[in-house]
Design goal:
Order of helices and strands: EEHEHH
Strand order of the largest sheet: 2-1-3
Structural class: alpha+beta
Helix content: 25-40%
Number of helices: 3
Radius of gyration: 17 Å
Largest sheet: 3 strands, antiparallel
């Protein structure tokens, strides 16, 4: 008889972005297959003295295209750079959530209907 295996964690590739008070007007973009909140929290080992969360997640979208291809944060950053967005020290980008959404939509339109690799 076949054994049933239950998978506790299902990989869900996600693109996320967040901001914080230390980098005003900037956004950090990432890729993860784990819970986005947990992933961002890993990047902030200590909370502020008032126990407030020192960041705000502003975007969380699937990184899986309708054709099954997966894109990552580097792909998004390449498109943003082509759009004229500056990438600052530490990988922070001087952009808005709308800019990130436009970059993701560009990736989707370019890759969803193609068989090419990369952006």
């Amino acid at each position: 008889m076949a054994e049933r295996v239950l998978h506790k964690d299902i990989l869900r590739p996600m693109i996320y972005s967040y901001s914080d008070e230390l980098h005003p007007g900037c956004i950090k973009i990432g890729y993860t297959t784990m819970d986005v909140e947990k992933r961002v929290a890993q990047q902030y080992q200590t909370k502020s003295s008032d126990l407030a969360i020192p960041y705000k997640i502003i975007l969380c979208k699937s990184a899986v295209l309708s054709n099954g291809m997966v894109f990552n944060d580097n792909d998004v950053c390449k498109i943003l750079k082509k759009m004229g967005i500056r990438i600052l020290d530490g990988g922070w980008l001087k952009c808005t959530a709308d800019d990130v959404n436009r970059a993701i939509e560009t990736i989707k339109s370019e890759l969803d209907n193609s068989n090419t690799e990369g952006v």
